[in-house]
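Sanity check

After download, print the first record. It should look like this:
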Amino acid sequence: MANLDFRFDDITEKFQAEELERIRAFGRSKTLPDLVSLEIGTNRGRFLSEVAQQFPDRYFLGAEWTALAKNARSRLKRDGVENADVLAADANNLLPILIDDGQLRELFLLFPDPWWKMKHRKRRVIQPEFLDLIAQKMPSGGNIWIRTDVGTFADDMRETLAAHPEFEPLDVFDYPLEHFPRSTRERHVIRGGIPIHTIYYKRR
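Expected structure tokens:
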């Protein structure tokens, strides 16, 4: 059940008020199922729509903080997908309000922005504090599925995940992502012959 009474610090509440109200309004309008699959960086919604159709018994939520969230919602509607939604929101704001402890079945992070500049590194999704939040929201056995075409970025994410006590790596050969649809970015990368780095972790 959504924690609509959750409040961030005063600065966040003030300067991100519109986004936070959007999240809380979604929580008031919809009761999420016991387990939720989350995609961060939904883009135009191709992967989200196709994976929701592939697994109609699961519920998928997409977090896309850019204007592309509108495109993703339109795609879900066009494809007749009823077991997925998209929110124009930062996952760091969405998770504490909408997702209960133990409710996050899995997390998809497919070809995220590597934020090349050193001063922007703090914007990368996989940070120790964010993993603390994921560990809180994910039950034992929950999965993190990550793919990127940036080798140094993959190394950084592996290092951060390996240092967290609540997660352990999965053997990529035992858990291939090929049974999931390919995102738009992944299709582009494959056509270009660019190596893909796959990172799978499990909540202990």
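If your output differs, re-run the checksum step. Summary of this record's structure: The beta strands are 36-40, 60-63, 84-87, 104-110, 143-148, 167-169, 197-203.
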